[in-house]
From TrEMBL:
<keyword id="KW-0812">Transmembrane</keyword>
<dbReference type="InterPro" id="IPR036259">
    <property type="entry name" value="MFS_trans_sf"/>
</dbReference>
<dbReference type="InterPro" id="IPR020846">
    <property type="entry name" value="MFS_dom"/>
</dbReference>
<dbReference type="Pfam" id="PF07690">
    <property type="entry name" value="MFS_1"/>
</dbReference>
<keyword id="KW-1133">Transmembrane helix</keyword>
<keyword id="KW-0472">Membrane</keyword>
<feature type="transmembrane region" description="Helical">
    <location>
        <begin position="210"/>
        <end position="231"/>
    </location>
</feature>
<dbReference type="GO" id="GO:0016020">
    <property type="term" value="C:membrane"/>
</dbReference>
<dbReference type="InterPro" id="IPR011701">
    <property type="entry name" value="MFS"/>
</dbReference>
<feature type="transmembrane region" description="Helical">
    <location>
        <begin position="155"/>
        <end position="172"/>
    </location>
</feature>
<feature type="transmembrane region" description="Helical">
    <location>
        <begin position="115"/>
        <end position="135"/>
    </location>
</feature>
<feature type="transmembrane region" description="Helical">
    <location>
        <begin position="243"/>
        <end position="261"/>
    </location>
</feature>
<feature type="transmembrane region" description="Helical">
    <location>
        <begin position="12"/>
        <end position="33"/>
    </location>
</feature>
<protein>
    <recommendedName>
        <fullName>Major facilitator superfamily (MFS) profile domain-containing protein</fullName>
    </recommendedName>
</protein>
<feature type="transmembrane region" description="Helical">
    <location>
        <begin position="273"/>
        <end position="293"/>
    </location>
</feature>
<keyword id="KW-0813">Transport</keyword>
<feature type="transmembrane region" description="Helical">
    <location>
        <begin position="179"/>
        <end position="198"/>
    </location>
</feature>
């Protein structure tokens, strides 16, 4: 709503890095809060939920009054800045909209193959992020670190992942390209997982290095997957439904991750690592199918094979979203 398509990755990745940094400090924070056990008659784990949950609720309530819904209502912009922003957005999306969520719009939205491929991509890559919480403590324990020291030694892993995530975002926007960075991140992640699968022949330091590689690869690809799909949706209704479905159903990857690391397989976790490799390459295949289908559709539109839709009634034609013949998908 505020940014042209090839300026969105950097912004989303900045937001996404808050999740990465949360992973870096959450263990230490939880450890500190758990020391409040007994205060008010509550166990330590209750205080973790109370304090972290309350902070989230308060910030969410404040955001209602801080975050502006639409550029047209942004009072922090001058009239000239607002007009410039709206003009840039119109140039980027060619004025194509989906501002009514009527029955035809619902059919176009829920029948769009891109959303379901996006879910598969996100499900595959998000499993890695969840999985690291299961095998990272085991590897850190093998290094002889426990409790607070182990939590501290996990922080550099997240910092490196955040750095490469932001570097990828910058390059992706600069090059106006998404697909290649997704595949690159998946390849990097695969290398880390293969090292962990072969850990009987790898030193403990090598396993620790593999954690960096695995997490970095996952966090290179994950935010790009989100933005790539959003870039190819037109109309705020469709973007909203797409985001909800991709993130919501895609987080099934977390459910899978929680069930593929049985304790009796520690420390090798061969099932967990193997399934993760399969899932991230499922994401790669879904991304490849999406790329081919969008390229094919762009070619058809370039050849005028979708121009018949321009003869639709004006109100329907102006509510086609990314089905509009003038819309072009980006890769």
């Amino acid at each position: 709503m505020y940014y042209p398509r090839h300026e969105l990755q950097w912004r989303l990745s900045l937001f996404f890095c808050s999740s990465i940094f949360a992973g870096a400090v959450s263990g230490l924070l939880a450890y500190a809060i758990s020391n409040m056990a007994g205060i008010g008659g509550y166990n330590g784990w209750r205080w973790i939920f109370i304090i972290e949950g309350l902070a989230t609720v308060v910030l969410a309530a404040c955001s209602k009054f801080i975050i502006v819904d639409w550029p047209e209502d942004a009072k922090f912009l001058t009239p000239a800045e607002r007009e410039l922003l709206l003009r840039r957005l119109r140039i980027d999306d060619k004025g194509i909209t989906m501002d009514r969520f009527d029955n035809k719009a619902k059919l176009r939205t829920f029948g769009d193959y891109k959303i379901y491929l996006g879910i598969l991509m996100y499900m595959g890559i998000t499993s890695v992020g969840y999985s690291t919480s299961f095998f990272t403590p085991t590897i850190l324990k093998q290094l002889g670190w426990t409790s607070v020291h182990a939590q501290v030694m996990s922080i550099p892993i997240y910092i490196v992942a955040a750095f490469f995530s932001l570097l990828t975002a910058y390059l992706s926007d600069r090059m106006r390209h998404r697909f290649g960075f997704i595949i690159f991140g998946i390849c990097v992640c695969t290398v880390g997982l293969i090292v962990l699968m072969a850990q009987n022949n790898v030193s403990v330091a090598g396993k620790y290095t593999a954690l960096y590689i695995t997490m970095t690869g996952g966090y290179i690809a994950q935010p790009v997957i989100i933005v790539w799909l959003a870039n190819n949706m037109a109309g705020h209704y469709k973007r909203s439904v797409n985001a909800a479905m991709q993130i919501g159903f895609g987080n099934i990857g977390g459910i899978i991750a929680s069930n593929i690391f049985p304790t009796n397989e520690a420390p090798r976790f061969i099932t967990g690592y193997s399934v993760n490799v399969g899932l991230i390459w499922m994401a790669a295949m879904a991304a490849t199918v999406l790329l081919v289908m969008m390229k094919t559709e762009n070619e058809k539109r370039d050849q005028g094979k979708r121009d018949a839709m321009l003869q639709l009634p004006e109100d329907e034609k102006n509510n086609l979203g990314d089905d509009h013949p003038r819309f072009r998908f980006v890769y």
